[in-house]
Amino acid sequence: MSEADTSPPRSRRALWTLCVWAVVYVLDQVTKVLAVAHLTEGRPQPFVGELLQFHLIRNPGAAFSFATGFTWVFTLLAAVVVVVVVRMSRKLRSLPWALAFGFLLAGATGNLTDRLLREPGFARGHVVDFLQLPRWPIFNVADASICVAAVLIAVLAVRGVGLDGRREVRGARSGAESA
User: Fold this and answer.
1) Which residues act catalytically here (predicted)?
2) Stated pTM of the model
């Protein structure tokens, strides 16, 4: 019996993706509402000393405020990511991949919501960022979720775990080659 045969049913994996998405998406949106309501833009407030500060900014670009004049491109790209992840997650046979897709979907939809609904307007909205670590750009829960997804995806890829849950055997020879 393979790993894929012992994995949870497809519907349960989709449920895990949905649960991770829902929890992280709600956390992202609630923290952004609280940040906008209680923080002054551009004015850092220590939270855990110098380790973690709240520092509200509105980011019109991508990560690290890259390409600030192309907000509509990032809006379109995020929408494509959401569609692709939703379509692919219906076919998953791997619980770890389902979790990774949940984090990726939450991050993409969290920032997409900002781009669609926040000022200065539809598909041009600025993303609310408010968390700052030392020597690191200001980010939000959605950004952190995308990073968690990237790490999970990298680990799964390095370990050779496919979307179907099976592990790819690297460097193995077939019986004919080894004889």
Assistant:
1) 129, 143
2) 0.82
Q: What is the pLDDT of residue 156?
A: 96
Q: How far apart are CA 174 and CA 85, in angstroms?
A: 34
In a domain, 105, yes or no: yes
DSSP at 49: T
Instruction: Specify the number of domains making up the chain.
Output: 1
Residues with catalytic annotation?
A: 129, 143
Partners of 54 in the beta sheet?
Answer: 45, 131
In a domain, 64, yes or no: yes
Look up residue 17 and give its amino acid. T
Q: Is residue 30 part of a domain?
A: yes
| Helices (runs of H) and strands (runs of E) counted in the chain | 6, 3
In the numeric block, which tokens belong to residue 12? 């349960």
Q: Give the pLDDT means over successive 10-residue stretches in the chain (179 positions).
A: 52 86 98 97 92 93 60 79 86 91 96 92 88 94 96 96 82 48
